Amino acid sequence: MSPLHLSFYSSFTLSALGLAFHRTHLISALLCLESMMLSMYIALSMWPIENQAASSITMPVLMLTFSACEASAGLALLVATTRTHGSDHLHNLNLLQC
Amino acid sequence: MAYFVSFLGVCFVLGALAVASNPSPYYGVVGLVLGSAVGCGWLLSLGVSFVSLVLFMIYLGGMLVVFVYSVSLAADPFPEAWGDWRVVVYGAGFVLVLAMGVIVGGFVEGWKFGVVTVDGGGVFFVRLDFSGVAVLYSYGVGMFLVAGWGLLLALFVVLEVVRGLSRGAIRAV
């Protein structure tokens, strides 16, 4: 595997692991999600560069658009959690007790 | 020059590591800013300046600025930076996972350097990324309109989730 491909594969995996493990703050999980989106942007723009397919350059731009929508929804949830519980600590989100 | 691009690739992974290793969110955003600045330089080194500047302006200048404002909601009395032992243990664990993955996956053989790019095709000297994004407005106008409508919808989603007092989604008070 070429080292640049290894670079964004491993940063995606690290961010996914960071999202999966226990965090103190909800916004730390949202930051890991943003880091996954960043590595996916780099990966999606690497493909049309290597294959010289110009019309596929629209893919990273569209992905960034939808990731902006997702980030805004995540931040709205963060604001709603802080207004309800006073902080964004994940142990406050305990309604689902299973 | 190839070594410089590889150094940018290593810095990209270090930025992701800085976010994933559970520091206080004030310091996690630093890792994300580093990762996006280095990713922008990486795309520039490959020749596609348009998508690099889109990353810089939209991601770093739009989304991350909003994230930095929202980080003020996550106030810790004693914020943990990367010198704190809890963050160091997380970071060391992630480096171990990365090393195990590289060794087991057999990635240390077969180092192929270079991602080729050209600025022209035959007798036409058209930049790859500029001509590609122009497709979004001509043949890809359906997707463009769907993306714009999705952004408008996201605005109303945010307004409804944040509203409280008997019509909200999360609020209890």
TrEMBL record, chain A:
<keyword id="KW-0520">NAD</keyword>
<protein>
    <recommendedName>
        <fullName>NADH-ubiquinone oxidoreductase chain 4L</fullName>
        <ecNumber>7.1.1.2</ecNumber>
    </recommendedName>
</protein>
<keyword id="KW-0249">Electron transport</keyword>
<comment type="function">
    <text>Core subunit of the mitochondrial membrane respiratory chain NADH dehydrogenase (Complex I) which catalyzes electron transfer from NADH through the respiratory chain, using ubiquinone as an electron acceptor. Part of the enzyme membrane arm which is embedded in the lipid bilayer and involved in proton translocation.</text>
</comment>
<feature type="transmembrane region" description="Helical">
    <location>
        <begin position="61"/>
        <end position="80"/>
    </location>
</feature>
<dbReference type="GO" id="GO:0098803">
    <property type="term" value="C:respiratory chain complex"/>
</dbReference>
<dbReference type="GO" id="GO:0005743">
    <property type="term" value="C:mitochondrial inner membrane"/>
</dbReference>
<keyword id="KW-0679">Respiratory chain</keyword>
<dbReference type="GO" id="GO:0008137">
    <property type="term" value="F:NADH dehydrogenase (ubiquinone) activity"/>
</dbReference>
<keyword id="KW-0472">Membrane</keyword>
<dbReference type="InterPro" id="IPR001133">
    <property type="entry name" value="NADH_UbQ_OxRdtase_chain4L/K"/>
</dbReference>
<keyword id="KW-0830">Ubiquinone</keyword>
<keyword id="KW-0496">Mitochondrion</keyword>
<dbReference type="InterPro" id="IPR039428">
    <property type="entry name" value="NUOK/Mnh_C1-like"/>
</dbReference>
<feature type="transmembrane region" description="Helical">
    <location>
        <begin position="29"/>
        <end position="49"/>
    </location>
</feature>
<keyword id="KW-0999">Mitochondrion inner membrane</keyword>
<dbReference type="GO" id="GO:1902495">
    <property type="term" value="C:transmembrane transporter complex"/>
</dbReference>
<keyword id="KW-1133">Transmembrane helix</keyword>
<keyword id="KW-1278">Translocase</keyword>
<dbReference type="GO" id="GO:0042773">
    <property type="term" value="P:ATP synthesis coupled electron transport"/>
</dbReference>
<keyword id="KW-0813">Transport</keyword>
<feature type="transmembrane region" description="Helical">
    <location>
        <begin position="6"/>
        <end position="22"/>
    </location>
</feature>
TrEMBL record, chain B:
<dbReference type="Pfam" id="PF00499">
    <property type="entry name" value="Oxidored_q3"/>
</dbReference>
<feature type="transmembrane region" description="Helical">
    <location>
        <begin position="53"/>
        <end position="75"/>
    </location>
</feature>
<keyword id="KW-0732">Signal</keyword>
<keyword id="KW-0249">Electron transport</keyword>
<keyword id="KW-1278">Translocase</keyword>
<dbReference type="InterPro" id="IPR050269">
    <property type="entry name" value="ComplexI_Subunit6"/>
</dbReference>
<keyword id="KW-1133">Transmembrane helix</keyword>
<keyword id="KW-0830">Ubiquinone</keyword>
<comment type="function">
    <text>Core subunit of the mitochondrial membrane respiratory chain NADH dehydrogenase (Complex I) which catalyzes electron transfer from NADH through the respiratory chain, using ubiquinone as an electron acceptor. Essential for the catalytic activity and assembly of complex I.</text>
</comment>
<dbReference type="GO" id="GO:0031966">
    <property type="term" value="C:mitochondrial membrane"/>
</dbReference>
<keyword id="KW-0472">Membrane</keyword>
<keyword id="KW-0813">Transport</keyword>
<feature type="transmembrane region" description="Helical">
    <location>
        <begin position="143"/>
        <end position="162"/>
    </location>
</feature>
<comment type="similarity">
    <text>Belongs to the complex I subunit 6 family.</text>
</comment>
<comment type="function">
    <text>Core subunit of the mitochondrial membrane respiratory chain NADH dehydrogenase (Complex I) that is believed to belong to the minimal assembly required for catalysis. Complex I functions in the transfer of electrons from NADH to the respiratory chain. The immediate electron acceptor for the enzyme is believed to be ubiquinone.</text>
</comment>
<dbReference type="GO" id="GO:0008137">
    <property type="term" value="F:NADH dehydrogenase (ubiquinone) activity"/>
</dbReference>
<keyword id="KW-0812">Transmembrane</keyword>
<feature type="transmembrane region" description="Helical">
    <location>
        <begin position="87"/>
        <end position="108"/>
    </location>
</feature>
<keyword id="KW-0679">Respiratory chain</keyword>
<dbReference type="InterPro" id="IPR042106">
    <property type="entry name" value="Nuo/plastoQ_OxRdtase_6_NuoJ"/>
</dbReference>
<feature type="transmembrane region" description="Helical">
    <location>
        <begin position="28"/>
        <end position="46"/>
    </location>
</feature>
<feature type="transmembrane region" description="Helical">
    <location>
        <begin position="115"/>
        <end position="137"/>
    </location>
</feature>
